[in-house]
Amino acid sequence: MGRKRLITDSYPVVKRREDPAGHSKGELAPELGEELQPPEEDEVELQLLRQFDLAWQYGPCTGITRLQRWCRAKQLGLEPPPEVWQVLKTHPGDPPFQCSLWHLYPL
User: What's the CA gap between 12 and 33, in Å, rounded?
Assistant: First the structure.
């Protein structure tokens, strides 16, 4: 009887090619004359704060604000990044900046 047939034997092999510009079909190309915009300053700062939230060497961050966590890490001698302190001080009372990633999750 020969070898056992596989389902992939029924379909031809198709290899996708990139166009001459180097883009694959799934990517969107920027419009002509449209330049890529650098991320907004707030978005860069929020990314820095998210990285601080994910850095476990400064202790847990659930149930407290980022500023409280930064101060606790400083008191414990863990040397938190001073850039985080600057961002937190420039946005007092602003929940996206002051609250950690997990502030909406119940304890």
Answer: 40
- Residue 83 is assigned to a structural domain of this protein: yes
Report the C-alpha gap between 63 and 91 in whole angstroms. 19
42-92 pLDDT, tens digit each: 899 999 999 999 999 999 988 899 999 999 999 999 999 999 999 999 999
| Domain annotation covers residue 97 | yes
Q: How far is CA 101 from the centre of its chain?
A: 11
Number of independent structural domains in the chain = 1
Domain that holds residue 51: 46-106
